Amino acid sequence: MKPEYDLLVIGGGINGCGIARDAAGRGLSVCLAEMNDIGSATSASSTKLFHGGLRYLEYFEVRLVREALIERETLLRAMPHIAWPMRFVLPYHKSMRFDGTTPTSKILNTVMPWMKGRRPAWLIRMGLFMYDNLGGRQILPGTRSLSLRGTPEGKPLKQMFARAYEYSDCWVEDSRLVVLNARDAEARGATIEVRSKVVSADVVDGIWHVILEDAEGRRDTRTARMVVNAAGPWVGDVLRGTLKSNSQGGVRLVRGSHIVTKRLFDHDKCYFFQGTDGRIIFAIPYETDFTLIGTTDAEHEDASEKPVCTPEEQRYLVDFINGYLADPISTDDIVWTYSGVRPLYDDGAKSATAATRDYVIKLDRARGAPALNIFGGKITTYRRLAESALKEIGTVFEGLSGPWTAGVPLPGGDFPHDGVARLIADLRAAFPFLSERWATRMIRAYGTEAATLLQGATTAADLGRDFGATLTEREVDWLIAHEYVRRADDVVWRRSKLGLRMSKPEISVLDDWIRDRVASALSAAAE
């Protein structure tokens, strides 16, 4: 029997979609099954950063940091509409302390016990020097010292903070990154099946027989030569339950929670804050009018339990940032929270904070057909993880072509990395009814495809029904047709963050409209 597909990928997060894209581009036939919406779990709940992981240097994870730093600029060139440079302000005060579990902390406590866990300024500067130079920067500016006296960066902070270091990392629209990888995989021949849960997988005569169940409970079988388990928080459940494997690979579930408040400062830089407990959080300009604060690190026992930002985590983040703010905030200032579960490889670390963010890939041939299991990883290195996965897959499919994704733009990203302002101006010239904010949102979401989406419109009325916050019928139809949208949440919390600006009644009306539209399309396709 010849299988339908070479690969069946379980999981539509960034790792699964990245692997599907890379594999399809090398000529393999690929089916990707996601039980919910594309990128709806961990990959939609990150801190929205492409970063090397400055704090990982304290754990001596130099290879991981170097790989991530190199990737920042590779990814900036491939997706300049959804990723862009950002400057990070790290305020310094002599009272700052290490996380006491890091190797660096243990060494400093031995050779400099009088510091009692405090971070000396020279050590921070040395770490930033490494951060500047490990990845071969070309686009991003390097570190500089910064006075906080009488400057916009210092205005929101307590007077005790007089100096800071400023360095570079990058922002990314994480949910859009996932869906664009899925779209590109599909454009290269992959089949993307959303809201299709893998309920069983068995090997028959060396071929995987995988049963999928859709949202209505209908079941169908897909056959594949190889299975890729990229199920994120559910990787362990799939490994031992669905795939019935005896592999010893383990996953550690760590919940990261975030809060969103009103805008707390009048500039476009991010703050890197270090706490008295040795942990760090970011405070990031978010969706123009807001500030994103996070993240926590807490053990999460059960992948089936939906992660939420608990009242304790909200209080922790508020208290943490109030240690820096001149005008403190309260939990009443929180306008939205979100939480995701990071499926880290279980390396036996004593705490969630200390657990490795590196990825581990394990090929299992024990059941008579190959299965590849993906543990851990971080959003910045998803493309390199996919290349590593394809290297393992190449041991099964002989003659597979080599890596190709570096520098290849994702849909809408085919313009220079510094060309966003020009693209926004061109879009407003072509469609004068767009406000500056509306045009910016369209370019930041769709890049060069924004003009295609709006084609033929001379007034806002030409775009059909207005659902609120500049979301129109034309755009929603595009999202249904091209981006796997089936529910209002897919649009207002993942393809965009318009849920911050839309009322609950508006979102409810949108949800009813989308469900009717999708049902009509499915009915027409069945006839």
From TrEMBL:
One of its GO terms (molecular function) is glycerol-3-phosphate dehydrogenase (quinone) activity. Residues 405-501 form the Alpha-glycerophosphate oxidase C-terminal domain. Its cofactor is FAD. Keywords: FAD, Flavoprotein, Oxidoreductase. Its EC number is 1.1.5.3. It holds the Pfam family DAO. Gene3D superfamilies: 6.10.250.1890, Alpha-glycerophosphate oxidase, cap domain, D-Amino Acid Oxidase, subunit A, domain 2, FAD/NAD(P)-binding domain. The keyword Nucleotide-binding does not apply. GO terms for biological process: glycerol-3-phosphate catabolic process. GO terms for cellular component: glycerol-3-phosphate dehydrogenase (FAD) complex. Residues 6-350 form the FAD dependent oxidoreductase domain. It is an enzyme of class 1 (oxidoreductase). Transmembrane segments: none annotated. It catalyses: a quinone + sn-glycerol 3-phosphate = dihydroxyacetone phosphate + a quinol. The keyword Flavoprotein applies. NCBIfam families: PRK12266.1 (NF008899), PRK13369.1 (NF009906). Belongs to the FAD-dependent glycerol-3-phosphate dehydrogenase family. This is Glycerol-3-phosphate dehydrogenase. The lineage of its organism: Bacteria, Pseudomonadati, Pseudomonadota, Alphaproteobacteria, Rhodobacterales.
